[in-house]
Every structure is written in structure tokens, then in C-alpha cells.
């Protein structure tokens, strides 16, 4: 059970999503991936993708225009 | 929107974060600015003021909806998601119905049909230009409307893209004569109602859009289960 | 006064209609319906559908002429209509104001959601990607009679076959662009 931060601040779509996808493959079940983003589209498509994959997802607005997408690798 | 799903098992503490500034007042100032500019433009020309207002509406909707034409073309290939693609298809279908109603109204009254300057010749230049555009929008992180919208959101990267979009446009305009002479002038302009009749053209197009919608949804399901 | 305002706007943040309409994003479908509505309004009032990228050529020509160049001999700007547009200036060019409006409309939406942030350049790669992408979009849009809005969206909605041809080219370009992006710009 570890937490991994993925810094995607300043990255434009679709890079945060592709990075998150690659990172999540490396993680083990039960691990948490925290994707930091400031791209308003990624704030919608990263959670959408992760939910579709069946992971637990939470989006938190940490600052104005900055979000953390917390993904728990459940399977 | 339902952003609050089941909470993940363990949560990091978010105690040591600086308090957020409230930007809402600046939002209202921007809205007031938009209104003032509209009033000033209206003194000169109502048409210009109308364009300004519709522009702000388009920008507002694009941003609020995170509506991204780039993603609609890119995501099916890159991530297998077609949710924006399907929304774009819906927009095409709805606008087709509205546009055709207006056009038919003019046509049946014996008036010149509006917007026919958007029915343009089809040639290899259309394909090459669209292909270049497709590559450009994906690597620049935004299409024409998306680039403008993201400049408004504060992206430096898109501001650079906008500058080079303008340079590229000038370059394209410079070479346009050549393309026109060798390719565009030989291409036909095809207005679908001329071929299929008004009703036929609308039904055909809506049918094609419906087919694409179903295809997009099935494709997403198929790709989703494959990995 | 200042403080009272601050409190007013802070209270606003928890208002359910604020959250629904200004804070949270619209669904894609809502945006699609609203865009269609304004497209139809645009055609009905101005007799032309929405277009974006043609304006950029005009802006380019203005800048080029400001630094001493001339586009008068270019086929693209040779028509009397294009010449009138260039001479009329920004204040009389409605299409320019629509593009500026997109920027300000998006800015207003972002600020009202309290989500504005200046996003600086992160790497050299981003600069190259943005510059190259911008050039490709600009050039491509000129020879194909428009961009994703004018050639694609308005083209298809105008029942022009050119819109569909543009869609095919654009989709192929997006696939190639995705490959380039993942390989070189990530």
C-alpha cells in the first residue's frame, strides 16, 4: 500500500491521462496514485477514464485551477 | 456533477494547504467588462456587438463543457474514449437540423440561401489541409476554438500556439494562389440537397451521424473490455 | 464593504445553483446542445455560420503590413471584399470580435468557477509542440477553407460534402499527431 504522486502540472491534454495510464500499470493492487493536474480538461477526462476502468476515484480541488485526482488501484 | 464517488480507502490529510483565494468577484468584473465592451461596440455597429456577444457565449460554453474538438478526434485512437466524440456528433446533428430549416426557408421563399460560402470545393487540398490541421491540433493541445478558449484559461502554451497559428495562416494565405490554381479550382463544391433533395440530404446526414454515434459507442465498449 | 463582499462571495460558493451552473463543468451533451443553439442563432442573424480561423489570416496580414509588408498581390487577399476587410481595421471586423469574445467568455467562465491559474511553460518541448502545431493548423486551415469550426462543424452542418472530407483528413491527422505526441512530446 503506497502512495505515488504524479506531477502533471503544466501538462496539456492528453499527456496527464497517458502518463497516469502508464504509471498505474506499474503499481500494485491497493496502491494509490495521486495525479496533480491544472488542465481543466484533464480534470474531467482523467477521472472519467479511471472510473470506466473500475477504480476508486476522487477529485479534489487543491487550489484555484489545480486538482488532485486520487486513484486507488482496486484491481 | 457527481464528483463525489466512494471515498478511496485511505486519504491524505489536506490540512496544511494554503487557503484558496476567491476569484468569483473577478469573474463578475469580467462579465461587466464584456457587457461594457458590447455597449461600446454597439455604438459603432450592432453587428460587431452581436459577434462579440456570441463569441463570449461560445467561449463560455466551450470552457464550461470542456468541449474539445481535438479530443473528439484524438481520444478514440489514443484512449478509446468516445464520450466527446459522441457529443460532437450530437452537436452536428442538431445544428444540421437548425441550419437546414433556415436554408430551406430562404430557398422556398425564392431568396438566396445563407451560408453557402461554407460549401467549398473538395480537392486534395481539403484532405492535405485537414490532415495538417489534425496533426497540429493534437500536438499543440487545442484546435482553433480550443486554442482561443485555453488562452482565456491562462495557458501560455496555447498563447504560443495562437501566435504560430497566425503565422501559419499568413503563410497558407500566401501560398493559397498556388493551391487554388492547381487543385482547388478543379474541385467540385457539393451541396448535398442539390444531389439528394432537401429531405433526402437531411435524412441521409442524420442517418450517417446516427450510425457514427452507434459505432463510437460500440467501439468504446469493445476497446474498454480488451484491456 | 470589502469584507462584506468577501463574505457574500464566500457564501455564494456553497449555493447549490452556483455549484450547478458556474462551478461544476457542464456535461458534454449540454455543451453540444448550447453550441448548436448559438450556431443556429449565428446563421439566422448574420447569414453565415460560425468560423474561427479565417480571422487569423486577417490578423496575420495586419501584423505583416504593420511591419512594412504588403499582401495586396496575394491571391487570397486580392478580392475587393478581402481588401475592404483589411482596410476596415479591427473595430469594424466583426469576426475578430467573435474570436476575442471566445477568449473573454472562457476567462469569465474560469474565474466564475474560481479556477483561473496562469499555466506557464513547463519545458522546451511544449514550446516546439505549440509552435509546430500552430503552424500546421494555420497553413492547413487556409488551404482547406477553414478549421474544426468553419470547415468541419459549419461545413457538415451546412450539408456540404467538403465538411465530411475535412473530417476524414482531420481524423487521420489526429491519429498521426497522437503518435508523434506520445513519441516526441511527452
TrEMBL record, chain A:
Q: Domain UPF0033: where? A: 6-30
- Tell me which family the UniProt entry assigns to this protein: Belongs to the sulfur carrier protein TusA family.
* Gene3D superfamilies on file: TusA-like domain
Q: Which InterPro entries match?
A: TusA-like (IPR001455), TusA-like_sf (IPR036868)
Q: Write down the PROSITE patterns for this protein, in alphabetical order.
A: UPF0033 (PS01148)
Pfam families in the cross-refs: TusA
Protein name (database record): Sulfurtransferase TusA family protein
From TrEMBL, chain B:
Alphabetically sorted, this entry's keywords are:
Membrane, Transmembrane, Transmembrane helix
Q: Which residues cross the membrane?
A: 24-43, 49-67, 87-106, 118-143, 155-173, 195-216
Short name of one Pfam family = Sulf_transp
Superkingdom of the source?
Bacteria
Q: Which InterPro entries match?
A: Sulf_transp_TsuA/YedE
Q: What name is this protein filed under?
A: YeeE/YedE thiosulfate transporter family protein
The protein's organism comes out as: Fusibacter bizertensis
From TrEMBL, chain C:
> Which keywords appear in this protein's UniProt record, sorted alphabetically?
Cell inner membrane, Cell membrane, Membrane, Transmembrane, Transmembrane helix, Transport
- Per the record, the domain of life is Bacteria
- InterPro entries given for it? Sulf_transp_TsuA/YedE (IPR007272)
Places the protein is found:
Cell inner membrane
Please give the chief subcellular localization of this protein. membrane
Its membrane topology is listed as:
Multi-pass membrane protein
Q: Where are the transmembrane segments?
A: 21-45, 97-116, 128-153, 159-182
Give the UniProt family note: Belongs to the TsuA/YedE (TC 9.B.102) family.
Put simply, this protein is called: YeeE/YedE thiosulfate transporter family protein
Q: What is the taxonomic lineage of the source species?
A: Bacteria, Bacillati, Bacillota, Clostridia, Eubacteriales
Amino acid at each position: 500500500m503506497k502512495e505515488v504522486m504524479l506531477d502533471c502540472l503544466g501538462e496539456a491534454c492528453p499527456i496527464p491521462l497517458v502518463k497516469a495510464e502508464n504509471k498505474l500499470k506499474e503499481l500494485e493492487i491497493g496502491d494509490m496514485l495521486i495525479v496533480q493536474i491544472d488542465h481543466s480538461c484533464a480534470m474531467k477526462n482523467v477521472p472519467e477514464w479511471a472510473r470506466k476502468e473500475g477504480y476508486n476515484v476522487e477529485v479534489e480541488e487543491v487550489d484555484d485551477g489545480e486538482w488532485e485526482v486520487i486513484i486507488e488501484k482496486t484491481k | 456533477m457527481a464528483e463525489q464517488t466512494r471515498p478511496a480507502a485511505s486519504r491524505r490529510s489536506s490540512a496544511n494547504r494554503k487557503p484558496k483565494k476567491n476569484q468569483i468577484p473577478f469573474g463578475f468584473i469580467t462579465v461587466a467588462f464584456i457587457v461594457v465592451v458590447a455597449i461600446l461596440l454597439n455604438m459603432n455597429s450592432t453587428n460587431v456587438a452581436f459577434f462579440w456577444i456570441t463569441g463570449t457565449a461560445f467561449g463560455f460554453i466551450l470552457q464550461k463543457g470542456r468541449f474539445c474538438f481535438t479530443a473528439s478526434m484524438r481520444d478514440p485512437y489514443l484512449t478509446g474514449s468516445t464520450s466527446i466524440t459522441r457529443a460532437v456528433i450530437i452537436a452536428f446533428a442538431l445544428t444540421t437540423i437548425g441550419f437546414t430549416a433556415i436554408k430551406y426557408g430562404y430557398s422556398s421563399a425564392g431568396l438566396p440561401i445563407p451560408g453557402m460560402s461554407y460549401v467549398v470545393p473538395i480537392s486534395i487540398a481539403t484532405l492535405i489541409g485537414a490532415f495538417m490541421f489534425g496533426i497540429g491540433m493534437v500536438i499543440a493541445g487545442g484546435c482553433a476554438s480550443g486554442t482561443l478558449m485555453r488562452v482565456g484559461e491562462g495557458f501560455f502554451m496555447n498563447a504560443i500556439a495562437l501566435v504560430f497559428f497566425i503565422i501559419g495562416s499568413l503563410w497558407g494565405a500566401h501560398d493559397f494562389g498556388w493551391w487554388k490554381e492547381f487543385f482547388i479550382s478543379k474541385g467540385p463544391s457539393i451541396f448535398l440537397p442539390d444531389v439528394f433533395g432537401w429531405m433526402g440530404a437531411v435524412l441521409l446526414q442524420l442517418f450517417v451521424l446516427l450510425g457514427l454515434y452507434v459505432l463510437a459507442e460500440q467501439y468504446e465498449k469493445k476497446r474498454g473490455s480488451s484491456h | 464593504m470589502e469584507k462584506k463582499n468577501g463574505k457574500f462571495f464566500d457564501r455564494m460558493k456553497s449555493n447549490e445553483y452556483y455549484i450547478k451552473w458556474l462551478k461544476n463543468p457542464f456535461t458534454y451533451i449540454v455543451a453540444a446542445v448550447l453550441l448548436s443553439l448559438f450556431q443556429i442563432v449565428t446563421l439566422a442573424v448574420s447569414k453565415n455560420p460560425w468560423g474561427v480561423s479565417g480571422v487569423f489570416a486577417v490578423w496575420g496580414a495586419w501584423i505583416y503590413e504593420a511591419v512594412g509588408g504588403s499582401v495586396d498581390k496575394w491571391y487570397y487577399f486580392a478580392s475587393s471584399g478581402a481588401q475592404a476587410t483589411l482596410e476596415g481595421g479591427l473595430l469594424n471586423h466583426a469576426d475578430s470580435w467573435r474570436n476575442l469574445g471566445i477568449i473573454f467568455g472562457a476567462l469569465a467562465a474560469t474565474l466564475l468557477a474560481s479556477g483561473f491559474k496562469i499555466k506557464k511553460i513547463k519545458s522546451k518541448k511544449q514550446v516546439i509542440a505549440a509552435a509546430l502545431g500552430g503552424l500546421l493548423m494555420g497553413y492547413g486551415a487556409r488551404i482547406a477553407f477553414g478549421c474544426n469550426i468553419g470547415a468541419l462543424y459549419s461545413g457538415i452542418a451546412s450539408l456540404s460534402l467538403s465538411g465530411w472530407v475535412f473530417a476524414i483528413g482531420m481524423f487521420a491527422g489526429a491519429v498521426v499527431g497522437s503518435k508523434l505526441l506520445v513519441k516526441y512530446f511527452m
